[in-house]
């Protein structure tokens, strides 16, 4: 098998570095969200204790990136929009989520082409999650 064929078949999960890298990304994301004042509106829509949120994002991203379907194994179909409807998510929260994730990816030195690919996918999903205008 050529390296080109191997590269084509690699998932974002593999390119990121697998399980430990997904966990590191999620942990850095939530650490930043918890610590940086720039993400205060995003932080406000999360519970005080973030362990459950960290686990759910890690489980979800694992499968979403092409790795093990940890979230689906536990909860079934993610139904992302439906599960987020109880939370007020507007443009500000969307933009803070994207900025926080971009900062986490940058701080973890994720390869630029992969970072750009993930940022575009995150942007589509984050915008779809909005349930109010502001």
Please provide a written account of the structure.
It is a single chain. The radius of gyration is 15 Å and the shape is globular. Helices cover 70% and strands 0% of the residues. It starts with a helix and ends in a 5-residue tail after the last helix. It contains 9 helices and no strands. α3 packs across α8 and α8 runs antiparallel to α9. The chain is mostly helical and 134 residues long. It has one domain: Globins (Globin-like, Orthogonal Bundle), CATH 1.10.490.10.
- In whole angstroms, the N-to-C terminal distance is 50 Å
CATH topology: Globin-like
Please state roughly what percent of the residues sit in beta strands, choosing from under 5%, 5-15%, 15-25%, 25-35%, 35-45% or over 45%.
under 5%
- CATH class placement: Mainly Alpha
Number of helices, counting only DSSP H or I runs of 4 residues or more: 9
- Oligomer status: single chain
Q: Tell me about the largest β-sheet.
A: none
Summarize model confidence as the mean pLDDT. Answer: 92
Give the total of beta strands: 0
Reading the helices and strands in chain order gives: HHHHHHHHH
Shape: globular
The number of domains: 1
Q: What share of residues is helical? A: over 70%
Task: Tell me the structural class.
Answer: mainly alpha
Specify the CATH architecture.
Orthogonal Bundle
> What's the name of the CATH homologous superfamily?
Globins
Q: What is the CA-based Rg, rounded?
A: 15 Å
Low-confidence stretches: 1-6
